[in-house]
Design goal:
The chain has 8 helices and 7 strands; from the N terminus they run βαβααβαβααβαβαβ. With 196 residues, it is of the alpha/beta class. It has a 7-stranded parallel beta barrel with strand order 1-2-3-4-5-6-7, surrounded by 4 helices. The longest helix is centred in the C-terminal third of the chain and has 14 residues.
Length: 196
């Protein structure tokens, strides 16, 4: 099974052709860092992912065609979905994804974060709140359990993220998870660290 669409993070939209921009997850908070550090710094509590997006939206002229997808940290306790949706609509962005996702943490860190409400379900519920405000939600998932949770909540578009440590057989991982999503009536897209 070949992914219908591949998405990747970008910190800047400058110079992107419309077709590439439409496949980009816009994360302006990553701009100060080289791309090879993005997977790590996006997860550290040193960035305000949503604040940087809000600031970039203020400076952005409306897209006439091919807007990017907005990447948000959906577990941000200070996120105001109504304000975020208004800013995204103003510039013509129609889709939002929970990237970076809390699902990239595991073990004790995941357990501690989960104990204070930072879990996949919280991310998916924020996406649903943004959908109520006219945005197209894309659920970033790292596992079948997360995909099933999102499907159960009514989400239908999925960005399949292999996690920080790629699976032993990435193609088999993709086929299995994308096939499961498709059988359940969802659309799967593939995460890529950078544009190739």
């Amino acid at each position: 099974m070949i992914p219908a669409m591949t998405l990747w993070p970008v910190a800047s939209l400058d110079g992107l052709r419309p077709a590439r921009r439409a496949q980009s997850i816009w994360l302006p908070a990553l701009a100060p860092f080289p791309p090879h550090l993005w997977p790590l710094v996006a997860l550290l509590p040193v960035l305000d992912i949503n604040g940087a997006l809000a600031a970039a939206l203020e400076a952005q002229r409306p897209f006439r065609t091919a807007p990017p997808i907005a990447g948000i940290f959906a577990c941000d306790p200070f996120l105001r979905p109504t304000d975020l949706a208004a800013g995204l609509h103003r510039v013509g962005i129609r889709a939002v994804v929970n990237a970076p996702t809390i699902q990239l943490f595991d073990g004790e860190t995941a357990a501690e974060l989960g104990s204070v409400g930072y879990r996949a379900e919280a991310e998916f519920r924020v996406l649903l709140r943004l959908a109520e405000r006219g945005l197209e939600p894309i659920a970033c998932v790292t596992s079948r359990a997360a995909a099933d949770l999102a499907l159960g909540l009514g989400l239908r578009r999925f960005l399949l993220h292999p996690g920080l440590t790629p699976p032993a057989d990435p193609q088999a991982w993709w086929r299995e998870l994308a096939g499961h999503v498709a059988i359940e009536g969802g659309e799967a897209m593939l995460w890529r660290e950078t544009e190739q």
